[in-house]
Each structure stands twice: as structure tokens, then as C-alpha cells.
Amino acid sequence: MSSNGFIKASYNLTRFAITVNELTLGLKEKLPPTDSRLRPDQRCLENGEYEMANAEKLRLEQRQRQARKMQESGWKPQWFVKDKGSETYRYIGGYWEAREDSRFSWLTSNCTTRVSPKSSNQN
Fold first, then answer.
1. Among residues 84, 7, 74, which one has the least CA distance to residue 46?
2. Of 111, 109, 108, the residue nearest 80 (C-alpha)
3. Phi, psi of 112 (to 5 degrees)
4. Predicted confidence (pLDDT) per residue in 18-70, tens digit
């Protein structure tokens, strides 16, 4: 660590900034697989593995493009419904209960439930 409190190999982030993403004991089991603290590119970057971080970032971006295509063909968020006549989504419950029970194993990589466009539920 340098004299100004910044860790040199970590993009001049303070020790606090680096620990914000720390996975504490028991936390990982309660997080959905989409939590940013679990991003492999971020972990590689924090560990100074810059080439691996870049490769992971490119892989994740490709997955995001695939998820966007799937959304365009019809999708329904798990814990939200779209309000009629609005672009606003409303929380309908269930996330905190699933988190408490560690029931995230069924989630897909983009955290949506696939439905046909005609059957999407819009309130």
C-alpha cells in the first residue's frame, strides 16, 4: 500500500472500495447468481488477472446480448409486473423469501422466466 492509503495494483482504489465487494461468511449462499459480487470478470480484476478479466468481460457481454434477444421474443420478470399504460414495473414480492430460503438455484443466467409473447402477464 502506498503512503496515501491507496492500493497500488488496484486502480488506486482505497482499501474500503476494494472490500465493498467482499463476500463475507454465509453471504454467498444467500445471493442470487446475478449479484454483481459474483461476476467472474470483477473477481479476476480484483486479483490482478487483467487478461482473464477482459476475457470474462467479453464472455459476459455475449451472454447479455443473447439474453436481450430472448427478452425481445417475450419474457416475464420473476418479481415484477408491468403496470398497464406505463413503462413502470411494480414489485410483487417473493425475492426476500427466496433469498432467505436460498432458493436461487432455479434462476436462469438472466433472471427471467421465459414465456410466449401472447401469454405475458401485463397489469
1. 7
2. 111
3. -135, 155
4. 777 788 888 888 888 888 888 888 888 877 888 999 999 999 899 889 888 88
